[in-house]
Design goal:
The complex is a heterodimer. By secondary structure, chain A is mainly alpha-helical. Helix content of chain A is 63%, strand content 4%. Chain A has seven helices and two strands. The longest helix of chain A has 29 residues. Among the domains of chain B are: 240 residues, no CATH class; 33 residues. In chain B, the strands form four sheets. In chain B, strands 5, 6, 7, 8, 9, 11, 13, 14 and 15 form a nine-stranded mixed β-sheet that branches. Classes of the chains: A mainly alpha, B alpha+beta. Chains A and B meet through α2 and α6 of A and α17 of B.
Chain lengths: 200, 563
């Protein structure tokens, strides 16, 4: 069987991915410390680091959004129901029986339908939830000046921010595992490093 | 840094406290330097290199008047009032100014609660009440001769100018003399063998100048019956405080006097514990503009530092200033100079030896732990304050206030809430004790403690007589039945501001067992305020996901190996 290689992840995309990955992991670590789950850096340091990471991620996202729209890559996240059932079937049965992967990545369609749905969820729901609550958290002392103090309380902002963090953690666990579910266990990871994905 | 100094200081402190207490030292002469009335142990607490106070004042003074050159003061004075008359020949309005202050009237009407307060009216849980004990207590009145209700509050010569303005350190208003200094050498306390010398009033008068820390301290450091007893943030270590104790008052540093903050005008000293300023001015622009029409209290941190005092690098701290009093972080512990009294149980007073003599017992640090005249005490140094929401409104349990003896009576209760928009989280010293109350009318009682008569508790150890005499003097009915009720009194901690390096760090509050663990009504990250259900669900789902992918992965490996 010949192995075909296609170029799926461009340089900026890879940089964005790994930058975002490290920042998100770092923010999970510092965030749950601020939350009070454990002590690692010390509260004050954890807050500072979390804040720096947050602004860095925002900066990265500004570039990423610009990149996605100028390159048209945003289309990669348009949800589709096509082959969703096939993908679920593959992950629950086929993957154990050496069945062929029902989705073939191409440069124009690099995410399988489950990935599309998952990433869209992250981009449109988990991300904004964390951003919005995180910003409110950061600017807590300006609420009165903004006139929002009667509508929001820090308790609920913290609740939704934490809920978002847990969702991100669940995504992270599943995502890291599913990177091994490509053509070979390492093909997805290699692709995200080199840009080139091996496909059947 | 605090802990290092703590050890060194506690050794000094122990000695100083003993000396102060055995002397019942209220009040002491300004820079308490005379060998006759300060025990060696107390001197040890003062810096060895302290220069002669009189010489120092001469050098440091930049006044345009040298009072030793004034003819009016170059004569022999027989009494305090005579000195005052001499002062008033030039300072014509001074006495009238003083007579309008609460230092003189011992009376204060709280404008918000309309409660009649002031030393004349309140009952505390230290020495309890002034009424019937004026001769003793009014050693700290800024006047001469207030021994009963017949005192003439309008007589100019009754004002004591020198107690606040002299700088020899030899002038001492001895308790028992109704605000007079002693005019001939006397033994004080009685039978102590210690001699208080009569001050040279001419020298005292000629030494006058601006009010120093020691002048204010001669009463305010010794409140509650001895050095450091009452406040926890005001004691004799402030005469010459090291930097770590008081960043503003260190001599080599800013060398503030009390009046630098308590910016006095026409003898009215701003700053009050009856009606404190809890939050400073919200839009305070540093510094408090002198001369500008402004009814704000200059005696707040904000009046100089504003409400955003931290540098841009620590901007997050500025976001705390609308919730947390500066003092909460910047006075991390009180009684850092020497131990302060924390409890006082009057109910155990009156134990006598088989011969009928009063007893004094010491604790392991040599502080008074029991005194037949007063009961049991405990002392602590480097105390972590209690923290409360406080908006500046204080309600007092006064003589006429009904109390519930089954509960701890709050002699003063600080009002505040997280939502009133006026409150900040404040550090307080809470002083706890037991004291007599009328068990029929459920009100606090005024005991007659000091006097040469047969009703004074300190002479006769008889509560029935003491309380009857005290209440009669206070002109309040007494049922004749008394008990002891648990009481609490709060003192806002605001003096002895530490250097910034010693301020609280984030995690001292933002942690599960942190300083603010009992402060309600606010969500604090890190304190464990988070929604427990969300936490449990979140971690459970994360774990399930992890287990799920591990099983899935194991299945894949198994299937792969099988073929």
């Amino acid at each position: 069987m010949t192995v075909e290689r296609i170029y799926v992840f461009k340089r900026f995309e890879r940089l964005w991915h790994w930058g975002q990955a490290s920042l998100i992991i770092f923010m999970l670590i510092t965030g749950f410390e601020v939350h009070g789950s454990y002590t690692l850096f010390g509260f004050g340091k954890a807050v500072d680091l979390h804040t720096i990471a947050a602004w860095s991620l925002i900066g990265l996202w500004v570039f990423a959004i610009f990149w996605h729209f100028t390159t048209g890559e945003w289309k990669q996240y348009i949800p589709t129901t096509d082959k969703v059932v096939a993908m679920i079937k593959f992950y629950s049965v086929g993957i154990f029986t050496n069945a062929p992967h029902p989705f073939k990545a191409t440069t124009l369609k690099k995410h399988n339908p489950l990935q599309r749905l998952a990433y869209l969820g992250v981009l449109l729901f988990i991300g904004p939830l964390l951003w919005l609550t995180g910003w409110l958290y950061l600017f807590f002392s300006d609420w009165a000046a903004w006139g929002v103090d009667q509508y929001v309380s820090l308790e609920w902002v913290a609740f939704f921010h934490t809920a978002g963090a847990f969702m991100m953690l669940l995504f992270l666990i599943a995502h890291v595992y599913l990177t091994t579910a490509g053509h070979t266990p390492t093909s997805h990871i290699k692709a995200m490093i080199t840009g080139w994905e091996e496909v059947d | 840094m605090l802990s290092k100094l703590k050890i060194a200081l506690s050794t000094l402190v122990a000695g100083a406290t003993v000396a102060a207490l055995t002397a019942f030292a209220t009040p002491v002469p300004a820079p308490a330097q005379t060998a006759t009335n300060v025990a060696p142990a107390a001197q040890a607490a003062m810096p060895a290199a302290a220069p002669d106070p009189a010489a120092m004042v001469k050098k440091a003074s930049n006044s345009t008047a040298d009072h030793s050159k004034f003819k009016e003061l170059q004569k022999e004075f027989k009494s305090g009032p005579e000195v005052t008359k001499a002062c008033l020949t030039c300072h014509t309005e001074a006495a009238k100014q003083i007579q309008k202050t609460k230092h003189w009237t011992f009376e204060f009407i709280n404008p918000e609660t309309q409660q009649k307060l002031g030393k004349k009216n309140v009952i505390n849980n230290f020495c309890t009440a002034v009424e019937s004990n004026q001769k003793f207590c009014n050693a700290c009145h800024v006047g001469y001769g207030w021994e009963n209700d017949k005192f003439d509050f309008t007589a100019d010569e009754n004002v004591d100018c020198v107690v606040c303005h002299e700088s020899t350190g030899t002038y001492r208003k001895v308790p028992g003399l109704s605000g007079h200094p002693t005019y001939k050498d006397m033994e004080f306390p009685p039978h102590s063998g210690k001699i208080v010398k009569a001050p040279d009033l001419a020298k005292v008068a000629q030494s006058v100048g601006k009010t120093s820390r020691a002048n204010c301290g001669s009463c305010h450091f010794y409140g509650g019956g001895g050095d450091a007893v009452k406040h926890g943030d005001l004691d004799s270590t402030l005469k010459d405080p090291p930097k770590y104790l008081d960043i503003h008052m260190e001599k080599k540093g800013l060398n503030f006097s009390c009046g630098t903050c308590h910016m006095t005008s026409a003898h009215q000293v701003p700053g009050s514990r009856y009606a404190p300023t809890a939050a400073g001015k919200k839009d305070a622009v540093a510094p408090h503009m002198r001369g500008k029409a402004d009814d704000s209290n200059p005696t707040s941190c904000q009046s100089c530092h504003g409400t955003k005092p931290h540098s841009a690098k620590m901007a997050k701290l500025n976001e705390h200033t609308d919730k947390i009093a500066c003092q909460t972080c910047h006075i991390p512990e009180f009684a850092r100079g020497q131990a302060t009294k924390m409890t006082w149980d009057w109910s155990t007073a009156g134990q006598l030896t088989p011969e009928g003599k009063p007893i004094v017992k010491k604790d392991s640090a040599g502080r008074n732990a029991y005194d037949s005249k007063k009961g049991d005490f405990t002392w602590e140094d480097h105390v972590i304050p209690e923290y409360i929401w406080f908006n500046g409104k204080v309600n007092y349990t006064l003589r006429e206030t009904k109390l519930d003896p089954s509960k701890v009576v709050k002699i003063n209760s600080f009002e505040g809430s997280p939502t009133d928009g006026k409150s900040l989280i404040w550090p307080v010293k809470v002083f706890r004790g037991q004291q007599p109350y009328d068990s029929v009318s459920n009100t606090l009682l005024v005991p007659h403690t000091f006097g040469a008569d047969d009703t004074a508790y300190w002479s006769n150890f008889n509560w029935d007589k003491s309380l009857e005499a005290g209440m009669k003097a206070a002109n309040v009915p007494y049922s004749g039945k008394y008990g002891f009720v648990k009481t609490e009194m709060s003192w806002p901690i605001t003096h002895m501001v530490a250097p910034k390096a010693d301020a609280l760090t984030c995690a001292q509050c933002h942690s599960k067992e942190g300083r603010l663990k009992n402060v309600k009504g606010i969500y604090m990250p890190g304190r464990g305020d988070n929604n427990q259900l969300l936490d449990k669900a979140g971690w459970a789902l994360a774990l399930l996901t992890l287990i799920g992918v591990l099983i899935h992965g194991a299945g894949r490996i198994y299937a792969h190996r099988k073929g």
